């Protein structure tokens, strides 16, 4: 990887929980089902066997991806941020556009981004534009809908 995979402790815990659930629960149950289905005879028309093998490949692929992401992860706790006057990883930022529409978002790792919940990935165009900004700064960002200018209204970090 050419850039670090920053992630919050909460995001890392979510990746680990998904890995553990797949590896310890779902995969063993599926292997048991496949073994049972294979013992039923003709595998070419055995839906349980065919679906089970396909699902097992999906799980193994996901486990590999999760493993690589966790290994490359650099866990940063936003509560430990010493400079709370500027926007850095883990900051919850309130921004206002040209029409004074405010929106609040949190800069998190790319693996935990969820725009519907206001979680913006660290390498997203908006997050890159906001990095290092202070309250009152104006930042211009190119978005798919066109170029927009945002003013930083508030910056918050979780308490330690």
Automatic annotation (TrEMBL):
One of its GO terms (biological process) is DNA-templated transcription elongation. SUPFAM superfamilies: FKBP-like, GreA transcript cleavage protein, N-terminal domain. One of its GO terms (molecular function) is RNA polymerase binding. It comes from the Bacteria. Keywords: DNA-binding, Elongation factor, Protein biosynthesis, Transcription, Transcription regulation. The keyword Ribonucleoprotein does not apply. Gene3D superfamilies: Transcription elongation factor, GreA/GreB, C-terminal domain, Transcription elongation factor, GreA/GreB, N-terminal domain. InterPro entries: GreA/GreB_C_sf, Tscrpt_elong_fac_GreA/B, Tscrpt_elong_fac_GreA/B_C, Tscrpt_elong_fac_GreA/B_fam, Tscrpt_elong_fac_GreA/B_N, Tscrpt_elong_fac_GreA/B_N_sf, Tscrpt_elong_fac_GreB. Signal peptide: none annotated. Residues 84-157 form the Transcription elongation factor GreA/GreB C-terminal domain. Residues 5-75 form the Transcription elongation factor GreA/GreB N-terminal domain. Belongs to the GreA/GreB family. GreB subfamily. Necessary for efficient RNA polymerase transcription elongation past template-encoded arresting sites. The arresting sites in DNA have the property of trapping a certain fraction of elongating RNA polymerases that pass through, resulting in locked ternary complexes. Cleavage of the nascent transcript by cleavage factors such as GreA or GreB allows the resumption of elongation from the new 3'terminus. GreB releases sequences of up to 9 nucleotides in length. This is Transcription elongation factor GreB. The lineage of its organism: Bacteria, Pseudomonadati, Pseudomonadota, Alphaproteobacteria, Sphingomonadales.
């Amino acid at each position: 990887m050419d850039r670090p995979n920053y992630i919050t402790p909460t995001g890392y815990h979510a990746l680990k929980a998904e890995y553990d659930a797949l590896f310890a629960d779902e995969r063993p149950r599926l292997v048991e089902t496949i073994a049972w289905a294979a013992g039923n005879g003709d595998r070419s028309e055995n839906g349980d066997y065919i679906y089970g093998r396909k699902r097992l490949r999906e799980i193994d692929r996901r486990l590999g991806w999760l493993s690589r992401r966790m290994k490359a992860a650099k866990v940063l706790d936003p509560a430990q941020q010493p400079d709370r006057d500027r926007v850095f990883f883990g900051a919850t930022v309130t921004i206002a556009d040209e029409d004074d529409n405010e929106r609040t978002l949190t800069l998190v790792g790319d693996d935990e981004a969820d725009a519907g919940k206001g979680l913006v990935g660290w390498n997203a165009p908006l997050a890159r534009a906001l990095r290092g900004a202070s309250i009152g700064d104006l930042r211009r960002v190119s978005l798919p809908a066109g170029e927009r200018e945002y003013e930083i209204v508030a910056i918050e970090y979780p308490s330690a």
